[in-house]
Design a protein that fits this description.
Shape: globular
Number of strands: 20
Strand content: 25-35%
Helix content: 10-25%
Number of helices: 4
Amino acid sequence: MPDSRRTPWLRKAARLVFILTVLFAPVKSFAADYTDGRIKLTLDEDTGRFTLYYLTDTASRRFEPLFSEQDNRTSSLSIRINERVYKLGETTFFTTRIGGTQTNPAFIFESAGMVVTEEFAFISVNGQPETTGVRLNVRLENRGGRASNVGARLIIDTSLGENASADHFSTDERGIGSEALFDAKWPDKWWVSRNSSYGLMGSINTDYSTAADYVHFANWKRLSDSSWELVYNRRNFTNPPYSINDSAVSYVFNPRRLSAGESINYTILLAAADENGFGQVALMPDAASGRVAAPSEGPAQRQVSPRAGALSRPASEEETMRSDLVVLRDMLARMDDYLAGRNSLSDEEIINIELVINRIRDRYR
């Protein structure tokens, strides 16, 4: 008769063996693609995550990712209901399905008392004749029998600026070379993460988007590990030993009271970088259909905001490679020790190991 006490250990051991294969084979999942103009949007129903791609070569129809896409779980939408936080696509509290239409696809996350709709619409900016981005609208609807305090947080795992010789990000007002935190009182209207060929642009405080309580530029792992609002720390984008020169953007819409039957919408713009930012935004497919309406309800402004981070020098390619090798050796040693019964690993630690391996592999593909 099998020893039931060994079952959890065997399951974890099997998971770790599977993680090792991630280094040599891509992760497969069910996904739906929506292409319009120069933008391809992929919705992955298995993970509840989306990825954006930009058409960099019209002759070969080559689409390049606008943010990290090797493991799409590194970007995430989380919902806070009263004192509990749920990472959508991972929690069993919400079911996940793809809905909407071909021109307005959406994720629909549903529980007994709450429906979250993450809807996408294709947009053009500054008079461009074709699609160059998306408008992301997050709708929170309280279908429970009583009022709740509900908020949303979106983390975008940026990657284009991580190998830049200068800043990881820039805004219309400044360069960002280390951790920075903005609220609605800051004059910055948009941010850009750019490599040598193209860039990703996101809204901060425009006429066409909702001003978040905070837009936080920080190390990806620090943002990902925080349950909700990460405490600002004036530091660079490295969090040793596992997260080197690794940046991300977090939009935080702090909880608002929603009575039974009430809803609230938050709008974020993401597009290929444009020197004029989000000066003009039009919905597609008819770019002449007019200006995207500004949200009627936005978060309250905060009274105090820390200064944006100072410039910092990114790690060199050789330093990054050396650090990655150290990280891989350390993780392999930890997995060997676990399989040999010399240490223990929690489920959360195993998930983090898997994410880090995916990110390192993505860096050298």
